[in-house]
Design a protein that fits this description.
alpha/beta, 22 strands, seven-stranded parallel sheet, 27 helices, seven-stranded mixed sheet, binds adenosine-5'-diphosphate, 37% helix, binds magnesium ion, OB fold (Dihydrolipoamide Acetyltransferase, E2P), single chain
């Protein structure tokens, strides 16, 4: 039987190995195994891995035996053997009980794998798996310059994978035939890429680092192209759906909004506005992402688009990630529209519409009333949270869906709302923060993109500093003084903490501290500071006498809304809050933000938080309080946030500090994935080129019809469990 890429591994490998690969690594077919690339390459004698391994890690190392000592155990019968192995830079102890490995001699080379443990402060492997290099062995793998180290699992070691791959690659010299190259020859030669067979040979059995690099480049191409083909297909499918034109009409709500705005639009707001106005006037549904700096004024851009849709007889829905934000939007839009937003009420203007708020916390009667307004079309502008997605909410004629602060919503939810229109409504998605270009081309790759780069003029700007408690403890007192000075000048302040506090343990979870880098096990760290504790300390201490209140997710929605309203009305000086204030909250009189335990937040999150102050004409101040030493990586990360207000730069930094897997589902040991090598940080050019190629390919009449290999790759990515990230952007 001829082996092909689709051959199940159980036909070509031993049953135990095949089972382990399938169950622990998700490798089912020859293709899966050949696409299971080495994590890295070891070189005898010159690697730093032993110095870097961390307790608890499961690792494979290549090292040489330095010493072997066996002694009887003190308490029990039997013997204990300690073997010290080393490489160029580190040493590590292996421990065996009743050891009988006669080949484990000083100077022998081998690979050792296991979970790193610790004994009396020294790292060690207890009973590691190992594979010794027999000097008489003419297995040239060991003599090769680079030894591939694979993502392995408990029962499938790196060297078992190495052997299995070698067997497949050597399969009767017919290997090159078994590999069908999905890339069109013409495209390959245009971009100077290796054939798939050559790339697979080189990634698994390289002689030089250059071999690895060229092979990886080619294999990344496969990933990038497949991904971009998938996204291009989505864009095309969306463009083919029938939509309804919502042309601009003079003398309606939009004109009223423009007349009521207390400021003039920035150039960017005007340009994007035109873009949206034109796109709403097409019978292809708009599918667009609006990204912009925090405070760049995305809301008003969205509102103007919504007004245009209402003017042409449709309804517009605005989906917000939190109730606080939904209520704020409703308040702001009602205030702006005045009588035009109260059609049907006593003082309403019959030429206007209704602004209806629909959130989960509405009382049953109010909810029924709101649903009725949505269903019969009286509500032209509908604002809500997830509750809008629920069954039972029907629109009379949904023309536009605006999703605010997209990172809290997935594609599925967007789709659920779109499905509420009888014809596909136009969709505008707004991100909370700017996103790097590679993320725009991948995670948001099915959307067209508009960008607001400019902030409205006349903003005071925010000065940021780190308050490093371990280096400069006195600075904290100064921070509270500054806050008091601002309040004395009539301004307001936020104090943000990672946790609510005072809970019965179980739900003592940080509220949405997402994006914070993974610092490994944190058992040795004290719990994060809590809103309730800090509020108490401030009230009785440094901020005594100020009007101080708390805001967090455990309050009832009415309570949250009431406090937010009181803060907006200037009745509260200092709001001690969790990240519920992170997205969108807009109180222009607030000028100070103090973030406690700032190191517990991610870079983009800090930027978002900071965006809550200096939204009016007064200059703002953001203080990042942390116990991290300024010189530590964490301290440096905070310093970087303090040093720049460029959201694009920070988004990139964020990408660097969080594991990329969070974004693209990359390289976590073992699981099956279509995206393994491609990096959002390093492969910008490649991704852009692949995007252009994919778009061009799908724009031809026959599409992928002549490229069954590519079509198969696209199909494989779609069924890949990791394609999940496409759904949960
Ligand atoms: P974001 O883009 O972060 O969602 P918002 O839409 O909440 O920002 O706007 C931030 C603040 O700027 C709001 O108070 C809004 O009224 C104000 N604003 C928006 N556009 C302008 C403008 N062109 N000139 C002055 N202020 C503006
Ligand atoms: Mg906003």
């Amino acid at each position: 039987m001829a082996v092909t890429m689709q051959t199940p591994l159980s036909r070509v490998l031993g049953p135990k190995t095949a089972k382990g690969m399938a169950e622990q690594l998700g490798l089912e077919t020859v293709r899966d195994l050949l696409r299971h690339y080495p994590r890295r390459y070891a070189r005898r004698g010159e690697q730093a891995d032993l110095a870097d391994v961390r307790v608890g890690d499961r690792v494979t190392v290549l090292a040489q035996v330095r010493s072997v000592t066996t002694r009887p155990m003190r308490q029990k019968k039997g013997s204990l053997t300690e073997v010290v192995v080393g490489d160029g830079s580190g040493r590590m102890k292996l421990v065996f009980f009743n050891h009988r490995h006669t080949a484990l001699k000083v100077n022998a080379w081998g690979m050792f794998a296991g979970t790193v443990g610790e004994y009396r402060g020294e790292k060690q492997f207890a009973h590691p798996d190992m594979h010794l290099l027999d000097s008489a062995d003419d297995d040239t793998d060991w003599a090769r310059a680079l030894v591939p180290i694979y993502p392995a699992s408990k029962d499938v070691s790196s060297w078992v994978i190495q052997k299995s791959v070698k067997m497949l690659l050597g399969a009767g010299g017919g290997f090159a035939e078994l590999v069908d190259d999905p890339l069109p020859d013409e495209m390959r030669s245009r971009h100077g890429l290796l054939s798939l067979a050559a790339a697979l040979l080189d990634i698994h059995r390289p002689t030089t680092p250059e071999d690895v690099e060229r092979a990886a480049h080619r294999l990344k191409w496969d990933e990038a192209l497949t991904l971009q083909l998938t996204l291009a297909a989505r864009r095309r499918a969306a463009a083919l759906e029938p939509g309804i034109r919502r042309p601009r009409k003079a003398g309606g709500l939009l004109d009223a909004v423009d007349a009521a705005l207390p400021f003039s639009l920035t150039e960017g707001q005007r340009d994007v506005g035109e873009e949206l106005a034109a796109e709403l006037d097409r019978d292809q549904p708009m599918h667009r992402l609006l990204q912009g700096e925090v405070g760049s004024g995305k809301t008003v851009v969205a509102l103007r688009a919504m007004a245009q849709v209402v003017d042409s007889g449709g309804q517009a829905a605005l989906l917000a990630p939190t109730e606080v934000l939904a209520a704020q939007h409703a308040r702001g839009i009602r205030a702006l529209l005045g009588p035009l937003g109260r059609a049907g009420e006593l003082d309403g203007d019959p030429a206007g519409t209704r602004v209806t708020l629909l959130t989960g916390s509405l009382k049953a009667a109010a909810k029924r009333q709101a649903r009725a307004e949505v269903a019969d079309g009286r509500a032209g502008i509908v604002i809500g949270t997830h509750a809008l997605l629920q069954e039972g909410v029907e629109f009379a004629d949904l023309g536009l869906v605006v999703v605010d602060e997209q990172h809290r919503f997935g594609v599925e939810q967007r789709d659920a709302l779109r499905a509420k229109g009888s014809r596909t409504p136009h969709v505008l998605v707004m991100t909370a923060t700017p996103i790097p270009r590679t993320v725009a081309m991948t995670v948001y790759g099915d959307l067209e993109i508009s960008t607001l780069r400019q902030l409205p003029s006349g903003r005071g700007g925010v000065g940021s500093s780190v308050v490093p408690l371990s280096d400069k403890p006195a600075w904290l007192d100064r921070a509270w003084e500054r806050l008091r000075e601002e309040v004395a000048a009539g301004r307001q302040a936020y104090v943000v903490c990672p946790r609510i506090g005072d809970e019965a343990g179980a739900d003592d979870e940080p509220e949405d501290v997402d994006g914070a880098p993974d610092d490994g096990p944190q058992s040795d760290r004290r719990p994060p500071l809590a809103v309730l504790d800090i509020a108490e300390i401030l009230r009785t201490g440094p901020l005594a006498g100020l009007r101080l209140d708390v805001l967090h997710g455990r309050l009832t929605p009415e309570d949250k809304d009431a406090r937010m309203r009181a803060f907006a009305a200037g009745e509260i000086d200092v709001l001690v809050a969790t990240t519920v204030v992170e997205v969108g909250v807009d109180v222009p009189n607030a000028t100070v933000m103090v973030v406690m335990d700032a190191d517990r937040f991610g870079v983009s999150q800090l930027h978002q938080l900071r965006g809550r102050v200096a939204r009016g004409k007064h200059a703002g101040l953001c203080l990042l309080v942390s116990e991290a030493k300024l010189a530590s990586p964490t301290g440096q990360r905070l310093a970087a946030v303090a040093a720049t207000s460029d959201g694009f730069e920070l988004a990139r930094l964020d990408l660097e500090t969080r594991r990329e897997g969070d974004v693209l589902g990359a390289a976590q040991s073992g699981r099956r994935s279509g995206i393994k090598l491609l990096s959002l940080l390093e492969d910008e050019e490649l991704i852009a080129t692949a995007r252009a190629e994919a778009t061009a390919l799908l724009d031809t009449e026959r599409g992928l019809a002549d490229f069954p290999g590519l079509a198969a790759e696209v199909a494989a990515l779609a069924t890949d469990e990791r394609a999940e990230w496409l759904e949960k952007a």
